[in-house]
Amino acid sequence: MSADLQDLYQEVILDHNRRPRNFRALDAGHKAEGFNPLCGDRITVYLTVGHGVITDVAFQGSGCAISKASASLMTESVKGKTIAEAQALFERFQQMITAPADAPVDDLGKLTVLAGVRQFPVRVKCASLAWHTLRAAANAPGAVVSTE
Amino acid sequence: MASIVSAPKTLDVAAIREEFPILRQRVHGKPLVYLDNAATTQKPRAVLDALQRYYVEENANVHRGVHSLSGRATDAYDAARETVRRFVNAADAREIVFVRGTTEGINLVAETWGRASVRAGDEIVLTEMEHHSNIVPWQILCEARGARLRVVPITDAGELRLDEYERLLTDKTRLVALAHVSNVLGTVNPIADVVRMAKARGIAVLVDGAQAVAHMPVDVQALGCDFYTFSGHKMFGPTGVGILYGRRALLEAMPVYQAGGGMIGRVSWERTTYADLPYKYEAGTPNIAGVVGLAAAVDYVTRLGLDRIAAYEHELCAYAMRALDAVPGLRLTGTARERGAVLSFVLGDVHPHDVGTILDRDGIAIRAGHHCCQPLMTRLGVPATARASLALYNTREEIDALAASLQRAREVFE
Q1: Domains (ranges, CATH) in chain B?
Q2: How far apart, in Å, are the Cα atoms of A8 and each of A69, A132, B358, B375?
Q3: Domain range holding A102?
Q4: Structural domains of chain A, count
Q5: CB nearest B370 (choices: A2, A8, A40)
Q6: For the segment B302-350, what is each residue's pLDDT rounded down to a tens digit?
Q7: What is the ipTM of this complex?
Q8: Interface of B with A in 13-32 (CB under 8 A)
Q9: Is the pLDDT at B300 greater than 90, yes or no?
């Protein structure tokens, strides 16, 4: 396998694809649906927020390894953060996956494993779908967002 | 057609590949293996040269100028219509309307014939394997008219249920619209049978020929359909140009589509009369270069012989099905007896997008997704498929490369 494919499909990503974390529905709180109409990926993100802090977050849906792993890693990264902190993290994440291939990689903790996406511009939407959907759930509960 | 009689019985694929400059390139350091022909085909030198020659030597507006260039552009444009007429064996060149592509061809019929002919309570019959472009225009029409869609189911192999089809034909049915060849399953539908059953009840039939015309001979009179539409870019021609064939009596009777220059007879503030066929449906300056390029593509496939192309692709497709079947965990979606060279599949638990990315790094271009057939994906019970679609320039070596790359994709996810 080529080096860039190895970057993209790191063991951590394959593991989150096989066994996505927080892959369930939440009964209470906010929820939003996200679509990637180009490929048919769809995701629902569930969110409970108390005093501006994300107390629980989960997702369901179907998609490629990148979108599933990204959603799974996202849920682990934003739990316990404030909405504003999650939003700031999304912006840094978006920068990381869209930066030029030779740019230095920002350390975003476990999210850093998705930096390899930057070498695959057509897959950026797969990695960012969950985050767009999270933002929609936080801002406008019940919203439907699309990558297009 | 002396050239065809004297031509060799089989295709010289090595020579054909030389005529497609884009096939020489490497992608990620590997030779390009282009297997996304159902999305769009590559263009041979003959088409590229025709486009270049048109703009360098003949460019002018058609049916307008008194000057020589306009005359030459008009001659080229009109000659292309006759070339296409011969290609699909229409009875009359006036039955050939230049449109942007299959999608516009279907929309044109929905907006003109449909608005004039479909009333509240009427029904339009489609099939489970239709592309969104042969679903949504009819859905919009039905909503506007209070009509409804009926859908012919398919078998698990991806064949039309003709018994169910016949049951759906009633005195409420106004139109049957279906694909000649499925862009997902590869199924070649029995159009002549479908038409015969519809005609027995006086029902009109529209055929979406987008996936057919580059791969098999098409004779609209033998098929007996009322409308047949296809795109230039899926048959080695340029993008942005396509054909709507319509039976003359229907085209004469239908209301106009878009209005503007070129489609009028006489205009005054009180009233406007419209041009005769086919100009009635060709408002505005047409895609003249595209039409010239499309005619060059028709000449190209005619020279090679559609029968020979079909025979070669049939053999290559059989080889590809065997090769894909041998990949552990791979399941073909669509195993109809009559099929074109479109192979959709799922590879175990590996999402088609991931398959597409891994293949791309081996220089192999396939399509992954719903292929604009979301209702069909629902029927198949999958969110998406991977699709390899062949054309006359593909080879067994390329199929071997595909199978090897799929094997590696599987190993990544094991």
Answers
A1: 2-31+305-409 (3.90.1150.10), 49-302 (3.40.640.10)
A2: 11, 21, 10, 31
A3: 3-140
A4: 1
A5: A40
A6: 999 999 999 999 999 999 999 999 999 999 999 999 999 999 999 999 9
A7: 0.88
A8: 28
A9: yes
